[in-house]
UniProtKB/TrEMBL annotation:
Family: Belongs to the NADH dehydrogenase family.
Domain of life from the UniProt record: Bacteria
Enzyme Commission number(s) from the entry: 1.6.5.9
UniProt GO molecular function: NADH dehydrogenase (quinone) (non-electrogenic) activity
Keywords for this protein: FAD, Flavoprotein, NAD, Oxidoreductase, Transit peptide
Residue intervals of the FAD/NAD(P)-binding domain: 12-331
External alternative NADH-ubiquinone oxidoreductase-like C-terminal domain sequence ranges: 358-411
Any matching Pfam family: Pyr_redox_2
Catalytic reaction(s) noted: a quinone + NADH + H(+) = a quinol + NAD(+)
Top EC class for this record: oxidoreductase
SUPFAM superfamilies: FAD/NAD(P)-binding domain
Protein name: NADH:ubiquinone reductase (non-electrogenic)
């Protein structure tokens, strides 16, 4: 079965993944004279830098989630299909998805990355990752449910398990969620749960290395450490988590921390695309690409963002960092090159990609952030304001910018959020049955038909 999209005389670009890179590429290809098809397993784009604020009930999911059909409304030669990409036949130029097949002239892999559990199946089963909006909502529900249960549990041992939070990974996500939860403990629990001793809630941040925010300078790392320590976060360096059993996080040195809220933000790996030989994979299961984001030896297949490993950039011989700006800049460059290729240009006329580092930043909490832009470095209130401005500018839509700004302002003066609700989505039976049918119907389809 084929995806029902009518072919015309124009070349077709199929983009797998509507993250920051895939979305930017689709936008920049508008008016290019090519037909653009965007494939994503969700019907919305999500803004990754603020996902952690959903988990801490700081903002509503709809504030950083944007329906694709609304973004590309009334655009000619653009099509969106909610589907999961499952396999590609690079010889026939056919992409197999959960809803059928689609042929392409150019295929761009922009499906990003997923959490890397480094082969530990037990941790993968029990830990809570933080890569998507649904995962953040799951963490929010777990946190709030555990607080409610802590008021009525039978034993002190169970109460401590419910109130302990263990975060594994001292990168930007780990630091930001630790800070957000520390503020939640200070400003929310005493008012929402007056009959609970908020000091019983312990937040542990576990890092296998010797400092936080390894991608930033030593100065910024030290400042982030000082901010978190002042907020009461228990930071442990040189600790490697090896297991989770009996509601306990187990370290390599034998120490254990009891918890029922176990967050894993320690590393990512690129999403796979069966059908492309594993010889094209590099570190982190990323597709090795040339300076034009082409996968060498695979005709008309490109990869951008977290899914690609580009070592041709002299400034980044081991590949670019897996951050939002890399994906966005690669998308811009690839859009220009695809337009040239569509016009018959050869490789000598294409523009090689070179990443321009626009800086790094992380927020630790109210009036606390670290920012590095070139040689400029800042910590504290000014860095926090700069962080707010940069992220507000990056959010799509004026309405969503205003919603997030108002949420932040209201939270800044009151911490009286109305979104601290425990909600579990349920799917209508018909939808569940249809999804099961799709999973079985197309799983065995042969691309060679």
């Amino acid at each position: 079965m084929s995806i029902n999209i009518q072919r015309n005389q124009k070349k077709r670009v199929v983009i797998v993944g509507g993250g920051l890179g895939g979305l930017r590429l689709a936008e920049d290809l508008y008016g290019s004279g090519m037909q653009v098809v965007l494939i994503d397993k969700n019907n919305f784009h999500q803004f990754p830098p603020l996902i952690y604020q959903i988990a801490s009930a700081g903002i509503d999911p709809s504030s950083i989630s944007f329906p694709f059909r609304q973004i590309f409304r009334k655009r000619k030669d653009f099509y969106f299909r909610m589907a999961e990409a499952r396999m590609v036949d690079t010889e026939k130029k056919i992409l197999q998805t959960s809803i059928g097949k689609i042929d392409y002239d150019y295929l761009v892999l922009a499906a990003g990355a997923t959490t890397n559990f480094f082969g530990n199946k037990n941790i993968e089963e029990w830990a809570i990752p933080m890569k998507t909006v649904p995962e953040a909502m799951g963490l929010r529900n777990a946190l709030l449910s555990n607080l409610e249960r802590a008021l009525t549990c039978a034993t002190e041992e169970e109460r401590q398990e419910l109130l302990n939070v263990v975060i594994v990974g001292g990168g930007a996500t780990g630091v930001e969620i630790a800070g957000a939860l520390a503020e939640m403990r200070r400003y929310v629990i005493p008012y929402d749960y007056p009959d609970m001793d908020s000091s019983l809630m312990h937040i542990y941040l576990i890092e296998a290395g010797d400092r936080l925010l390894a991608g930033l300078s030593q100065e910024s790392s030290q400042k982030a450490y000082e901010f978190l320590k002042s907020m009461g976060v228990d930071i442990q360096f040189g600790k490697m988590v090896t297991d989770y059993r009996d509601h306990k996080v187990v370290m390599k040195d034998g120490t254990e921390i009891p918890t029922r809220t176990f967050l894993w933000v320690s590393g990512i790996r690129a999403n796979a695309m069966p059908g492309i030989d594993e010889s094209h994979l590099g570190r982190g299961f990323r597709f090795k690409v040339d300076e034009y984001n082409r996968i060498p030896g695979v005709e008309d297949v490109f990869a951008i963002g977290d899914q690609c490993l580009q070592t041709s950039d002299a400034a980044y011989p081991n590949g670019h960092p897996q951050v939002a700006q890399v994906a966005i800049q690669q998308a811009k460059n690839l859009a220009k090159n695809l337009k040239l290729i569509n016009q018959g240009a050869d490789s000598s006329e294409l523009t090689a990609f070179h990443y321009k580092n626009l800086g790094s930043m992380a927020t630790i909490g109210r009036n606390k952030a670290v920012v590095e832009i070139g040689k400029f470095r800042s910590q504290g209130f000014f860095a926090w304001v700069l962080w707010l401005v940069v992220h507000l500018r990056s959010i799509l839509g004026v309405k969503n910018k205003m919603m997030v700004l108002l949420n932040w302002l209201w939270k800044y003066v009151s911490y009286n959020d109305s979104i601290r609700m425990i909600t579990y989505a349920t799917k209508p039976r018909e939808v569940e049955e249809r999804m099961k049918r799709e999973q079985t119907t197309h799983l065995g389809e042969d691309l060679m038909e």
